[in-house]
Structure formats: C-alpha cells, structure tokens
Design goal:
The complex is a heterodimer of chains A (624) and B (813).
Chain A lengths: L1 H45 L1 E2 L1 E6 L7 E4 L5 E7 L2 E6 L2 E5 L5 E5 L10 E7 L2 E6 L4 E4 L4 E6 L7 E7 L2 E6 L4 E4 L4 E4 L9 E7 L2 E6 L4 E5 L2 E5 L10 E7 L2 E6 L2 E6 L2 E7 L3 E7 L2 E6 L4 E4 L3 E5 L8 E5 L2 E6 L2 E6 L2 E4 L13 E6 L5 E5 L4 E4 L5 E5 L7 E7 L2 E6 L2 E5 L5 E4 L10 E5 L2 E4 L2 E6 L2 E5 L10 E7 L2 E6 L2 E6 L2 E6 L11 E7 L2 E6 L3 E5 L5 E3 L1 H4 L4 E8 L3 E6 L2 E6 L5 E4 L8 E6 L3 E6 L2 E6 L10
Chain B lengths: L32 H17 L2 E4 L9 E4 L10 E13 L2 E12 L5 E8 L4 E10 L2 E4 L2 E3 H13 L18 E9 L4 E11 L6 E6 L9 E13 L4 E4 L9 E5 L3 E13 L3 E7 L5 E7 L22 E8 L12 E7 L7 H15 L6 E7 L3 E3 L5 E2 L2 H12 L9 H12 L8 E6 L10 H6 L7 E7 L5 H10 L3 E5 L6 H10 L4 E7 L5 E6 L4 E2 L3 E8 L4 E10 L2 E10 L10 H20 L3 H14 L6 E3 L5 E4 L2 E2 L5 E6 L3 E7 L5 E3 L1 E3 L4 E5 L9 E11 L4 E10 L6 E4 L4 E3 L3 E8 L3 E7 L6 E2 L1 E3 L4 E7 L7 E11 L4 E11 L2
Parallel strand pairs in B: 3-12, 19-20, 19-23, 23-24, 24-25, 34-41, 43-50
Antiparallel strand pairs in B: 1-9, 2-5, 3-4, 4-10, 5-9, 6-7, 6-10, 8-32, 11-16, 12-15, 13-16, 14-15, 17-18, 18-29, 20-21, 20-22, 26-28, 26-30, 27-29, 30-31, 33-35, 35-39, 36-37, 36-40, 38-39, 40-41, 42-44, 44-48, 45-46, 45-49, 47-48, 49-50
The chains are: A mainly beta (624), B alpha+beta (813).
Chain lengths: 624, 813
Amino acid sequence: MRLAFKKILLIGLAAIVLYCVVSQILRVKNSVQKTLAETRARQQEKNRVPFEKKVLTPQLSDRIQILQNSSATTDFVKFRGFFFAATGGGLAEFSDGGKLVKHFTVSDGLPESDLTALVVFQDKLFIGTRTKNLVVFDGEKFENYVFTDREAQAVTAFSASDGKLLVGTLKGGLLEFDGNNFTEIKADDKRIRAINCLHKEAGKLVVGTFDDGLWIYEADVWTHLRTGEGLPSNRVVGVVSKDKNLYVATDFGFGVLQDKTFHTLAVSPALSGLVLQNNQIFLAKDNGEIFTFDNATKEFSGDGNLRNARLVAADEKLFLLSNQGVSQINDAKIKSFTQPENDSLTDNFVSALALDERANLWVGTFRSGIDVFGAGGRKLKHIESETVREINFLQASGETVSAATSSGLQIFKSDFSAENVTRNDGLPSNSVTHFSGAALATAKGLAFRENGKIRVLSTVQNLPNNSVYTTLQAGRKLYAGTLGGLAEIENNRVARTFKDSNSRLTTNWVTALCQANERIFIGTYGGGVFELLPSGEIHSFEAETGKFTVNPNAIFADGERLYVGTLTGARVLDLRTQEWKTIKKVLPSETVMSIAGDEENIYFGTANGIARIDKSYFTAGESE
Amino acid sequence: MKVFTTETQRTQRFKDGLATNNTNNTNRNLVCNSQFSRLKKLRVLCVSVVNVFLIFSLAAAQSGVLIPTGENKPNPKILALTQMNVEITIDNQRALVKVAQIFDNRAAQTLEGKYVFALPRQSSISDFAVWDGDARIPGVMMERRRANRIYESIKQAQTDPGILQTTDETESATGFSAKIFPINSFGTKRLEMEYTEDLPIENLASHFTFPLKPTYGETQTVGEFSLKIRVLNDFNFAPVSLENSPYPLQISRSEPNEFVGDFHAENVELKDDFSFDYQINAAENRLSVVAYRAPEQISAYDLRDPQLADKNADGFFQASVVFAKKIDETRQPKRVVLLLDTSLSMYGDKLARAVEAVDFFLHNLAPEDEFNLILFGDEADILAAAPVEASAENVEEAIAFVKNSYLGGGTNLKRGLQTAIEQAGKFSNGERQIVLISDANPTLETMKTKEIERVFENQNVKLFAFALGADANTELLQNLTRKTHGYFDRVRETEDIGLKLGIFLEKIGASDISNLRLAPDANFYDVYASGDHSFFGSNVSFVGRYKKPQTQTVSFSAQTGAENINLSSEIALPESDETHAFLPRVWARARVDALLLAMNENGEREDYIAEIIRLSEKYKFVTDYTAFLAAPRALLRPRLIQPGDPVIRVKTDELIKAVFAVLPFGETLPLTFLESEKVWETRFLAPVWMADGTYKCRLLLTDKNGNGYSEEKTFVVDSRAPRVKITLEKQTFRAGETVNLKVSADSDTNRLIARIYGAKPVQLFWSSKEKANVGALQIPENLVSGKYTLTVAAEDFAHNQTTEELAIEVLGK
C-alpha cells in the first residue's frame, strides 16, 4: 500500500516536473514564436510599400482618335473566357478563335499604352506597365496602383500562387500583394533589382534578373547564382521545374541546377525564354526560332524572322508572342492566332509627321521607315530600306516630301521615288536631323546646299556646337539650334550666339525652333520653352510652365496655338491669351516626338502611336 | 526618355571588354554540355597562349593596366599591380623599353582581364609575353595572309583566336591591348612588354617619355616600382631638369657619354609620366659610328621556316651625324604661303587642330615677315591678291578669313599647291616657302602622287608639310618635302600640337643641309639614310651592313648653301660586339621601309614581299604584310556617344550572321546588317534617367555555322558640352601686360585654349595648387586701347566643344 502510495507520489511528482518542463518549453516556444512573429510583422511593416489606388476614367471623345499598332505583344493570358494580349499599343482582347474583340487604349482609361506583363489574380486582370506601375482590370474598368515611395520604372514579371501575387519590377524590387497590401521581398535585406522573370513552386521562389543572375529563396535562405556558378549569362530569361530539376534559360544558353552549380545544357545567343508544356521543355530565341529539349536540344519550328519573340502557355496551349502578334504552336506548326494589322502603323514610335498637299499623312518612325496614310486612313505605302529607316523630320513642299534621316536627306516625289543626299554628295554627316530651305542640320555641323555644292559651318566658324538639331528660317535670318546654344546666322555667317553665359537661355541644348505669328520660340532639352524677342532678348516661360524637355523638332504652330512635344505630354500655348495647358491623358504616350496639323486636326506623334485631336478640343475647359 | 536622333561615324577610341564565349551550334541544334565543356577547355588553352590586338589609345589608357573583364577601369581590390619594373636603354637615340609587371588576383575565382598599354607615338612593340606559371608564352608575328588562314582554322576548331592587324578600324595604332586569361584565384600573373622608339634630336635636345599618367580616369598605384634608365651616346650629352622629376633618380653613373639612374619606391601612385630630357653637346658638326656583330640568334619559332633560320654573319653599323647649331645665323625675314586644306575630309578635330596651327603659326610671324593664306578644297580661295606683311592687323584678318570660310567639297591638292607656288612667286625676294596643313588625301583632278610631285619641278620653293590626322597621306607629303628640301611632321587629330608646332616653325626659313651622303665603300652594303636632308641642331643617321670586321675610315659629306660639310671618322668594325643590340632591328626596319617605298613607286614584287615578311617576322614589327595573331571578334562603335549619336554600330568578321545587343537600361535589340557599309547597326533610346557616364553593353553574336559568342563592350554617354567659367583678377589690363587666367571646367574637359585679338593663343593646364586650369595670355605691346573679347574654347573627351567669352578692357601704351 505504502509502496503503491510512493509510486503514485513519484508518478505525481514526475508528472508535475514534466508538466513544468513542458509548460516551460511551450512558454519558451511561444515566446520565440511570438518574437519571431513580431519580428516578421515589424519587418513586414518595414517592407510595406505604400501605394495609391485610383479608378481610371475613360477619355472617350469623338474628337480624339488614337492610331497605334497592337501587334508587338509582350504577354498573353486567358481571362474570363477571352484571351488578352499586353502590347506596345495597349490591351487587346481576342475571342478563342483569335478574332479581335476590343482594343483598349488610353481612351478607354489605360494610363499608358506600353504594357509589359499580364496575370490573372483574384479574378482580376493585373497588367504591368512601362512607367505607370500596375493596372487592374475587372472586365469593365481600369484601376491604377501607383507605388508612392519608389520609382519602379517598369513592372516586368508576375507570379500568382497561394493567394499571393508576386510583382517583379525593373528598379522597385520584388513586391508581394495579398489583395490589400504590397510588401517588398528583399534578399538578405537588399533590394532585388532588374527582375526579368519569376518562378514559384512548393517552398521555393526563383527570381531571374536582367543582369545579376538568379536568386533562389528556399528554407528561409537566399542563394545568389551567377556566371561564376556556371550560369551561361547573368541575364535570366526563363525558369521551369521538371522532374525535380530546375532549368534556367539565359540569353546565352540554358542549364540545369545541380548542387548549387549550373551545368550548361545548350548554348544559344539571344535565347528569349523557355516554357514547360505537356512535360516538354520548349525554348525560343528572340528571332522566333523554337527548340525542344529532352537530353539534347532539337530544332522544333520557327523561321527566325521575328523580333522580341517569346513563348507563353495560356489555356493549356502554347503561343509565340512577337512584334508580329500572337501565333499558336501545334505539332511543330506555327499558325497566326491574331490577324495582321495592315492599315495600322508599322511601328508605334513616331518620330516625324507631315501632311502633304493631297492631305496624306506621312509618318516617320524611329527605326522602321515611313508609312503614308491616305486621307481616309488607309495605308497607301510603307517605305523602308537601308537608307530610309531612322526618320528624324518630315516636311512637305509642293509635290515633294523631304525626310531628314540618319542616312542623309531623302526627297520623295509623288510616286514615292526618292533622291538621296548623303556624305557622298558632300554632307559632313549622313545624320540629318532637320532642314529649312537650303540649310541642313547635321550631327557634324550646319550644311548649306547651294548651286549643287555643299558648304559647312562648324565650330571653327563660331557655331556654338557641331551637333545641330534644328533650324528655322525667319526672314533673312537663319537660326540653328545646337547642343551648345542657339546661333543666329545672316548671309551664311554666324552673326550672334545665344547661350546660358550671354543670354537668359538657361539650357544650351536647343532642340526645336518655331515661328508663330512673327514670334520665335525656342525649345530646349531640359529648360522648357523660351522666346526670342524682337529686341534680341530671350524670354523664359519657366515661371508659367516650369522646366521640361522639348523633344527634337517636336514643335508646331497653327496661328492660334503653339504645340510643344515633351517627355511629359504636350504643352500648348494659346497665342492670344498667353495661357499654357498640358495634354497628357489622351495621348498614347507622354513622350511626344512630333507634331503636325491641318485645318481641323492636330496630330501628335508619340513613342506609342499617334493621337489625332480635333482643334476644338483645345478650347477652354477641354484641356487638362 | 532621352531621345537621340542621329548617327555617327566618329571613330573614337574605346574600351573593348572581351568576355568571349565560344560554342558550337551546328545546324541550329544546340550543343550538349559535354561538348561545351570540351570547347571551353580548348578556348582556355588557346587564349592562354596569346590574344593580342592593337587599338586606339583607350579611355583609361596608361602604361600597363590590367582591367578585370566586366569592368571599365582597373580595380585594385580584384587585380592589384604589386610589382612593376621598367628598364629603359637609350642607345644612340634608339630607345628600348622593357616593362615587367606582376598583378595579384585577390578574388576567389579565376579571372579574365584586359591588359592595356598606351604606346608613345612612333614606337613599335617588339615583344609581348604572358607567363603561365613558370612558362613564358611569347606573342607571335606572322604573315598576314597566313595569320588569316590560321585564324580561320582555329575558329573552325572552335577555339578563340583573333587576328591583329597594323591598325584597328580607326586607322590608328597608338594603344596596345591584350586579353589575359586565366588569372588564377589568389594567384599572380606576370606580363612582359617591350617596345622601341626612335628619339629625334631637335635643337640639339632629345626627349624621352614613358607614359604612366592616365589620360583619363583614376591613377594606378603600384606596390613596388622600380625604373632604371641607361643612356648611351657617342656624342657628349647632359641630362636636363632632373631635379624636378616626380620620380627622382638615384644617379649611379654620369659620364659625358653615359648616364645611369634608377628609381625605386613602394606604394607609388603613378600620376605623372616619367620624362628624361638631355642636351647633346655638339659645338661643331660630328660624325660617330657604332657597330654590332654577333652570331645570329635563331629562335625555336624561326626554325619552323628554313628561310628564317638562314644565318647571315655580316655585321651592322650605324653612322650618326649631329649638326651643331648655327650661332651666327641672323634671322632672315620669312616669306611664307600658308596653304590650309578646308575640304570635307578635314571635318571635325582635324580642322580644329588645323585652325589652331594656323593661329599659332601666324601669331609667331614677325612684322617684317610676309605671308599669304590660301584655303583649298575643290577650289582655292586666296586671302590677298599678293602677299602681305605679317602685321597684327593682317594676321587677325587672316584668322577671320579662316573663321569665315566654309568647309566643303573635295580635295584638289594639285590645284592648291599650284596656286601656292604662284603666290610664292610674288614674294619680293628671299627664300620662298609653302606651309601646307592638310591630311593630303586628294580626291579631285588627280590622285596620282607623281603628278602632284611634278608641280614642284623647276620651282624654287620649299614645302613644309604639317600632316593632320591618323589617315594623313604621310608618304606623299614626305616625298614632297624631301624633294623640295622642306620639312615634314605629323600629328593625330586628338594630339596636343603645341610642341610640334614650335619645332616645325623653327625649320621654316632655317638653312637646310642637303646632299647627305655616306661615302660608298666596298665593305658596306644595304645602307639606308634616315632622311635626304636635315637642319642645324638636328641629326641624320645611316644604317647598313658590313662584310669584313676591320678598321676603316667612314666619310660623310653634305651641303648647306654654298658651303660643304665633310666629316670622317676611323672606326674599328668589330669581329664580335653585342653592345648595340638594337642595330639589327633598326637596319631591318630601314630595309623594309626602303622595299615598301620601292614597291610604292614601281609596283609590287613577290621577292620584296617575301623579304618584308621574313624580316618582319624575324624582328617583330607590323607591316602591311604581317600581323600579330589574335583580335576582338567585334568592334563596337561609337565608343563615345554624344546626344546626336544614338546608334550602336558593330563591325564583325564576315562569318557573323546575327548580332543582338543587351543594353544597360533593360532593353534588348537585334542589330540590322547594313550591306552598303558592312556594319551591324541599331538605334537605341537612352532613358531620361540615364545620366552621362560609362555603360556596359553586351553583344551576342551568332556566326554562319551556328557558333555563339558573347562580348561585353563599354560606351560612354556624354550629352553635355563642357561648361567653362573664366576668372580674372581684374577686367582692365595694359597693353603688354600678362593676363593670368583661371578657368574652371567640367572634369571631362581635355583641352582649353584661350585667345585674345593679336595675341598668341595659349593652352591652359590644370594646376593642383590653384585647383583650376591656368595659363598666361600676353597682351600685345602694340594693342590699341579698347574693349576686347577674351575667349576660352573647351573640348571634352566626347569632342563636344564650347566657347566662353569675357570682355576685357585694354589700355594702350
């Protein structure tokens, strides 16, 4: 009995001790967990990214027409039964058969046209943009999420899983969105920059960057892998997992990760990505060539004539996106999914505009030659060759249209045949930026075509700088805007120069000149617009407009207003009221590169297409 | 975004990163891992041997820097220069410089680097070697056609060669660069470099510089630095200004004919060049002869070619004559027609230098001199119908004439010279001279050298030619000046021309010495003179070979005006003497130059070509027919991107079928091949947030066989003309007074010149004491009272130019 009591006592004591120990352990554990949770919460709070959410209102108006190409596709997803394509010309919605259902532009509320990535998250379409952060589309309206504490520069990649959305950016780091808040994910407390692609699988996050290799987060540890660890290049373009192996594509080849070291499986310059489809790895190059990989790479499809090509899987199908739209890949066959836009711009980057005497619109592009559109909007001609590629300025004169290009001056007749004036004819440089009559602005001085001969003024003859951007013939005087100031030229001699050191010009780089109602306006790179008064004094509009950058020769006057193309929209000066206004939201891009006009409309050539705006839009109360 | 709208042909120098990978991709199927590894090993083996190419002097160019691949400047935290030994021997005006450097790899990984060495102009590399552990691996000189063949065959074998030609695409060659791989982790890499340079004597002075100061960027620090200089000369000489040297020499020998000094220090910042100037003591004209005779050394490489292994036991000699200065010579008034090329080929830096030369030249004329000025392109524009006195007003009028001119048209050199000869005929009396400032690349009327030379036939006029630009037709100008007993010099468009102009100017109107002859002797053969005529205070030398070792008399004769110069010397031509080891190479170079000249005049000959190749290979110098092995796969242009230059242009070998650029701001672009220019090109947009600076760009290349290459290049965006601020102590000056200028300018400004009416323009230099660019401008004594504009012209490394003006008041005397 006593023995039994002792046993019970001992057991009781042991139980008490055990209880104490366990409770102590639990308390310590709870305390540690609490501390950890608090630390995490503090860290999360510290890494929380403030943002503003705003509903984007459509800018629909029959007085505004947007002309842009939406072929150059960057991402492609299925959302609510339709396919959506992110393009350089807005968002395009397609039916299952590839028929264009709707083309969403800035007029529909998009904050910009250059879209970079797509993902469906919480039954909404999340759209990455080049400069305006995140856009969310619920099928009806667009909302804009703008990060207020950082310059993200571009949203470049998405990954959605486990109720969380990962957002990769060029400069703003890696962000996680839980539906309410954004939190930055850092690698060892450092921002991950220039994110190119994201891949998430059970317990593992893989971040590919533009120039800094690969980051892998697993079991609370970040690992950084670069070329030193066998990666073919530090620019990662795609990541997939297959059979517990991590395959990584870079722009110089792809490899597999084994024991924290990459083993190169194949080398291919300009590889643009890889996808896993039906347990098969597909690789694509920037030119559209496609390969498969099992134990070795094998040519699959593609003729290699595309640009910016990449593969995506959507709706369990494989698609090839490129500058020429979307193609579907099936059994080694590539079939166009989207229809070519024959009457659209060849390239959205419009660097020059002119209207000829038949009211045809000549559209000069930054890299892809010239499009000519008839008055009815039909494309009459696309002109592109080795010498007609990079267009800086267009001007119609009688039956001819002249183009200042990086391959000389091209003079087109009505049948589109061209006469070419180049270095072979005596130009100091083939790089012609602008012209006025006989004067040609070039990268190596101001050239004059006189009696079949070419003579050049340079810094030796007191031109402020040899990089000449713009010219203006005003009566007997010729003005030349250069990198180093403005030159006033009389009788082909530099009579006077205007610079920050001898005038009220605060920025020497003169990019645009325009005469409006006998007034001479000077556009500068960074200093805004100035006026050269008849007295020879320079007047600054900085008090009214602040400083801004005027793009080369993006200036136009119609007698009523002066229109100025800048990096932040168009500035419009009412020449009667002297009031300045800014036009931004209705433009396909804030970068306005060229302006032209006729009796009724003003055409703004931007980095993402053209906006044709009826002049009545600029009357009081209509502009922003 | 920052939008650039034009293109450039600018051929600036550039930093070539050469992270070249090479793989096989036959039939567009990508290679598998094992093959890649094998190829990588082959690449390593090949590149370890040597991969050398010449480029125009680099942005960070200085003597011997090793830049880790992927970086654009030396990084001592990764690759540190721990030891540098420089051995300089100047033997009778022939400098031989040997440099040995040891770099430490302080990283935990094997590195690749780019070795950059800025060669002095007119020097030539004679050796380069990389040490791989205990093995010294020398560079190989070979026939260009053969080098091309080997290049192709190695490329077929998927290794990574290249080919080095005399010049890169800039048509200039003052830099030397080599890719160095592998540099083992925490290991060292020893590099050796040897070059030779001929030092002229001008005004009985000679100047040697070893470049240590960076032309741009940060200075390099060396853990242990030693420099030894030995100067030997048959003429007595004395070093000048040794006490002010940043590398003070410990003099161990200082004799009339020999000087030995050395410098040794630790943790030395290489922020100044090493210079050594010496004065030849020649009170009278003197002849001296040195000789060399030793068993010919046949290297293992030479043994591969029976012709190279052929021995020739004959000796080498050099006879040098130094002409003493003419003390009693009174200055004669100069009668000069200045002929300035304003054709389109002179565009840009060349014209800027040309105008600077005209400015300098005219302001150095004395009032009693007479001149006329002709600007020529396709036509000739003359300043005045007849020559005018060199008064201050006429000089300024001439400067204005230049400034009000146009650039344009082709180059009718013959017409320009004919017009100048006509004008020279109008001088009242005295010797007539034409000063030609041009690149001498005729494009109109005639391009034939002989026809142009003919315009000087039966003309009593001397031509003094100042050639501008790396592409100047020096052969033509040298011929013309030789035939007219004038003087020739050349400068690159980016070079500081001040010193050269000074020397050039002294030659004009000075008595020349002609009919330079070394008396023929049966024991001598293949004797070559360094020039046809010379000047007092200068020298001439003859190099040749001798058959029999013996004591004999060497005689020299020349003529100056009506006066004869006869010199002779008795010399023992040795049986065996290796003291002057430079002589075989100097003779070989002279022989090759003579053969090239003969072929230029009379057409190519197979036997001459064979001999040129044989001598070039044996003595290691690059000619039109020979090349070092190796080179970059692609050259990216432009290196310096001005706002008007938005394009990337890539020149590749013909096998490349696709080029893809990965730009630093997150953009990728395929390049288009321009058939007409044979270059790959793309236009790019630099985002507005991209500040001026140096950026990296990766090029991904694919050749016709599917092989892939990745190369990293750098380029510089410079979108701003230099900003200049002038500071003066006061605003009013008296005529004859000195204006002390202090000018602050952007850090990338590399040239500042100040001018005022009537005064000689002056170049401003950085003063660490003043923390500004300083210079002294002398206001002319005879300047009349009034307001004048002082201008300072600035130019930066991207050749953006700006001019700043300041009004000052001058009170005349």
